[in-house]
Amino acid sequence: MKCLVFLTAGALLACVQSAYAAIGIAPYVDCAEPEVIKVLAKNVSSVSITVEESSLPWSYSSRALVFVGYEISSGKATKLRQHRPVADYFGEVELESGGVIIGEISLSHLFVDYDEAHSSGDLIIFYEVDDSYSDKGAYIGGQGLLFIPKKKVFSSSCPSIIRSAGVAGRKQ
């Protein structure tokens, strides 16, 4: 077994067998776009990987990243309703060993009541990387949460990601 470490908007540690195809997934946020989760996908194996575009974490039909969101207001947590718009991806993407691609997930497309909830209270969105994408290999990246402060007229609502390993990620 070969252990690989790579840093992306925080840290992701993955031990991967060199003959096994694996894609490391690292969500991160940007203060300039608090309504968007950016997702970095890196081939952390020693072999080239070909994946269906529809299986990539930012494809709305993909289950590579699982989200559950809550609005926190006045000490109460209200679950955000989720919907997944249809996105048709028919192609394949090839990632060489060490290759990186980046995509985005719009929270207002992911959660029906995102804008209203963001104006009403703080948001906590739990995420988990599913450990499989096909019979060819796996996604790796663990779990964590995204904290988005309540949207206010005269203050920042810069989001923060806290990964399960306790490493916080924020791009400013």
Give a short synopsis of this structure.
With 172 residues, the protein is mainly beta. It has a single domain (2-89, 97-166), classed as Immunoglobulin-like, CATH 2.60.40.
Largest sheet: 6 strands, antiparallel
Task: Give the CATH architecture.
Answer: Sandwich
Number of helices: 2
Number of strands: 14
Helix content bin: under 10%
Task: Choose one word for the global shape.
Answer: elongated
Q: What is the residue-averaged pLDDT?
A: 79
Number of domains: 1
Uncertain runs = 1-19, 166-172
Distance between the termini: 36 Å
Strand order of the largest sheet: 7-6-10-12-13-14
- Fill in the CATH topology: Immunoglobulin-like
Topology as H/E string? EEEEEEEEEHHEEEEE
Broad structural category: mainly beta
| Gyration radius, in Å | 16 Å
CATH hierarchy class name: Mainly Beta
How big a fraction of the residues is strand? Answer: over 45%
Please provide a written account of the structure.
It is a single chain. Helix content is 6%, strand content 47%. The chain is mainly β and 172 residues long. The chain has a single domain, classed as Immunoglobulin-like (Sandwich), CATH 2.60.40. The strands form 4 sheets. A 6-stranded antiparallel beta sheet has the order 7-6-10-12-13-14. Strands 9-4-3-11 form a 4-stranded mixed beta sheet. Strands 1-2 form a two-stranded antiparallel ribbon. A hairpin with a 3-residue loop joins strand 1 and strand 2 (11-16). The longest helix is centred in the C-terminal third of the chain and has 7 residues, at 114-120. The chain is elongated. The N and C termini lie far apart (36 Å). Residues 1-19 and 166-172 have low confidence and may be disordered.
